[in-house]
Design a protein that fits this description.
With 560 residues, this protein is of the alpha+beta class. β14 and β15 form a beta hairpin. The strands form 6 sheets. Strands 6-7-8-9 form a 4-stranded antiparallel sheet, with no helix packed on it. A 3-stranded antiparallel sheet has the order 5-4-10. Strands 1-2 form a two-stranded antiparallel sheet. It is flat, with a radius of gyration of 36 Å. The C terminus is likely disordered. The protein is built from 18 helices and 15 strands. Among the domains are: 56 residues, no CATH class; 97 residues, no CATH class; 103 residues, no CATH class.
Length: 560
């Protein structure tokens, strides 16, 4: 028996003398420890005849897996992962462009909020209040809300997550609620001495890198420093403030995490975690290729001589003006010495294999982030319409998932807090939590390579009922289909009034199932009929609009 085992057994015996309960508890855990060691030894012996994927090596490549917890694997490397991706997005053109592409396609100019309660007047009141406040929600940043959205999303992609804290001036209860974006670097590291157990909300809880959890593992608070640990503290501010951590209840924060792949994972992972080395390799390859090209461009020719090296550097050679670095200029003629020959350099750059190799590496990068290599490089080259459309459709699936998670993880939380605060202050009509929760967020929409083909496909979808008008308009970035119809009717009514005022004939509508061959709308107004009132006119204008929208039943568009 080892000395360590003997010492532990002796300590257990002494503890049992003073407390039978404590001694029994220690004995129980000793049995569990021995059982675990036996289990590991047993499985190590059995692994030799098990799955090939579970062996220590795959060919000549050793496996580096572990059976640690999610936090045990992630937290020791998290700060390095963040630093690497920050460097890549700062210095590497490919990484910077890829991050910008995701930011522009997921968020765009701004994800716009729309209240979707059954009460149209309430929707208008909530949206009016939101639009009046949204650009002032993050005063410390001082940017419009669209720019704040892009900033939060970019930080989350770069750092694996971001923390947003709601703030309220206790001395000004009537003041509106605002928010603060907190970098995860400001959470208290485990290495820094933390609060005592009595300061925790749950005595049986614990703190994981600044996240206080209860006995079930649920976050109950965040320990946040007043300043970034590596911030430049202004003169006169106590340097200890950077290590001063404030306990913020979890209900006042939202921790938006990305790439959470395991239960019990406290933090998200930066998006480039699997491709950081590939992006670095591509950058180094391009830089080395550029250096090679520069060197080749500087060397025009070389002179081959039968003379020895001593003769070339002799006094006689220098006296007659022989120089090893003769400059070649346009139109120059120079003589060669006996035994010399001129050989021009033909740079073999770039090599034919260079571009395909870079494309192969970009395929690896694109596969890791869910887009095609064309998106990674920012161009489609000789791709035809079908190929380009396929790549964009797959990429937009990735953007759509990211957008959904961002809306659910950040924007709905901000909206709910803003509306609840406005309700308490009487800034909006009385509304329940269910109505507040009913909101949609709309993207600016996409444009296609061939609009005509896409328009034809949309027309077929509408006519067959595969898609509704609401779905089509949302893809185009139009939030409210009702407003869209109202605007179209208003335009058609105005056009009709102007035609009548100028004595022009009525515009003949497009043929469609809504109007028959002998309808008034198809043949124009009958001079013998009495003039229609405004309501009849508006209804008549609905008919050609509905016929263009698709699903028509008896002259009225069926919208869902």
């Amino acid at each position: 028996m080892a000395f360590g085992d003997s010492l532990r057994n002796g300590v257990d015996w002494v503890v049992g003398l003073f407390s039978a309960k404590a001694g029994a508890k220690r004995a129980h855990f000793r049995r569990l420890e021995r059982d675990y060691e036996y289990r590991e030894a047993f499985f190590s012996a059995m692994r030799a005849r098990g799955y090939r994927a579970a062996r220590e090596k795959a060919g000549n490549t050793p496996w580096a897996g572990s059976d640690m917890s999610a936090d045990g694997e992630l937290i020791p490397d998290l700060r390095v992962l963040r630093a690497h991706q920050r460097e890549l997005e700062r210095d590497d053109p490919l990484a910077s462009g890829l991050a910008r592409t995701f930011r522009n396609d997921v968020v765009g100019d701004e994800l716009r909020a729309q209240s979707v309660t059954p009460d149209a007047d309430l929707n208008r009141d909530l949206e009016d209040y939101w639009n009046s406040r949204r650009n002032d929600l993050f005063p410390a940043i001082g940017l419009p809300f669209g720019a704040v959205q892009r900033l939060i999303y970019a930080m989350a992609r770069r750092d694996g997550g971001v923390l947003i804290k709601r703030t309220k001036d206790a001395g000004k209860p009537a003041a509106a609620m605002t928010f603060e974006v907190v970098e995860l670097d400001r959470l208290r590291p485990t290495a820094v001495a933390g609060p005592s157990v009595g300061e925790l909300g749950d005595p049986e809880g614990w703190i994981t890198e600044g996240i206080e959890k209860d006995r079930t593992g649920k976050p109950v608070a965040y320990w946040i420093s007043e300043h970034h640990p590596r911030d430049i503290i202004p003169r006169g501010k106590a340097i200890q403030n950077r290590w001063k951590y404030i306990r913020v209840p979890a209900e006042d924060c939202i921790h938006y995490r990305r790439n959470v792949d395991r239960a019990g994972q406290s933090f998200g992972v930066p998006d480039f975690y699997a491709i950081s080395q590939d992006l670095k390799d591509i950058d180094l390859l391009v830089l080395a290729s550029l250096k090679r090209s520069q060197i080749a461009a500087c060397m025009a020719a070389f002179i081959k001589s039968d003379q020895g090296i001593d003769d070339l550097f002799s006094t006689t050679a220098r006296r007659f003006g022989y120089e090893l670095d003769q400059q070649i200029e346009p139109g120059m003629i120079f003589a060669l010495y006996p035994g010399e020959d001129v050989h021009t350099l033909i740079p073999n750059f770039p090599t034919p294999e260079l571009v395909p190799f870079i494309v192969m590496l970009c395929r690896r990068v694109g596969a890791a982030v869910g887009v095609g290599w064309e998106v990674v490089l920012g161009g489609f080259g000789d791709s035809n319409y079908s190929a380009a459309r396929t790549v964009l459709l797959e990429a937009r699936k990735t953007y759509g998932v990211d957008r959904h998670d961002f809306v659910e993880g950040v924007l709905r939380w901000i909206w709910r807090n803003v509306m609840e605060d406005a309700r308490l202050r009487g800034a909006i009509p009385p509304v329940d939590d269910v109505a507040i929760a009913q909101n949609d967020w709309h993207h600016q929409g996409y444009q296609w390579i061939d609009p005509q083909k896409e328009a034809n496909a949309t027309k077929v979808d509408l006519e067959t009922g595969i898609r509704t008008l609401r779905q089509v308009l949302r893809e185009k970035g139009i939030a409210d289909w009702r407003d869209h119809i109202d605007q179209k009717l208003e335009e058609e009514l105005y056009e009709q009034e102007q035609r009548e005022a100028l004595g022009l004939p009525s515009k003949v509508p497009e043929a469609g199932p809504a109007q028959g061959a002998g309808s008034d709308m198809a043949t124009g107004p009958d001079k013998d009929e009495p003039e229609k009132d405004s309501s009849d006119m508006q209804m008549s204008l609905t008919v050609p609009l509905a016929s263009r929208l698709g699903r028509v039943n008896g002259g009225v568009a069926c919208l869902s």
